[in-house]
Amino acid sequence: MSTESDAEKQQPGIPVPWEPDPENPQNWNTWRKALNLEIFHVSPLESSVIVPGVPLLQEDFHETRPPVTSLVVLIFVLGFAFGPVLLSPLSELYGRRLLLNICNVVTLGFSIGSALALNIAKLIVFRFEA
């Protein structure tokens, strides 16, 4: 009696040479590992970096309704949640690096748009898109 299943017999394994691959994170030097770790730790801060400035937003945009100014923070988190759901299939088609670079440029553009927004509605839209 064989211990291999029928599926294992039909699909032979393909050996992957990891040792010489410079893109394998295990082969990165220490500074590159540390840099990537810091980038991953800092990226969630973008959602909450605006919180201390909410009172200033209320003053600058003459917005007296607290739920509207809270929406500025909430909408970014919603975009942060739905973005990967919508973009993950594209990364399988076009590659992760290309999509990540495009998303970084788009995020930068909408973050600049957020900084230059003239009213609270535009700020909310730019924050969602960022």
TrEMBL record:
Which residues does the UniProt record annotate as the domain Major facilitator superfamily (MFS) profile?
32-130
Residue runs in coiled coils = none
- Topology with regard to the membrane? Multi-pass membrane protein
List residues traversing the bilayer: 68-87, 99-121
Annotated compartments: Cell membrane
Listed under GO cellular component are: plasma membrane
Q: Which Pfam families match?
A: MFS_1 (PF07690)
- MF (Gene Ontology): transmembrane transporter activity
Indicate the principal place this protein occupies in or around the cell.
Answer: membrane
InterPro entries cross-referenced by the UniProt entry: MFS (IPR011701), MFS_dom (IPR020846), MFS_trans_sf (IPR036259)
Q: Which domain of life is it from?
A: Eukaryota
Record region (Disordered): 1-25
Alphabetically list the UniProt keywords.
Cell membrane, Glycoprotein, Membrane, Transmembrane, Transmembrane helix, Transport
Q: Which PANTHER family match?
A: MAJOR FACILITATOR SUPERFAMILY, MAJOR FACILITATOR SUPERFAMILY (MFS) PROFILE DOMAIN-CONTAINING PROTEIN
Give the family from UniProt: Belongs to the major facilitator superfamily. DHA1 family. Polyamines/proton antiporter (TC 2.A.1.2.16) subfamily.
Give the protein's recorded name. Answer: Major facilitator superfamily (MFS) profile domain-containing protein
What's the source species for this entry?
Fusarium anthophilum
Taxonomy of origin reads: Eukaryota, Fungi, Dikarya, Ascomycota, Pezizomycotina
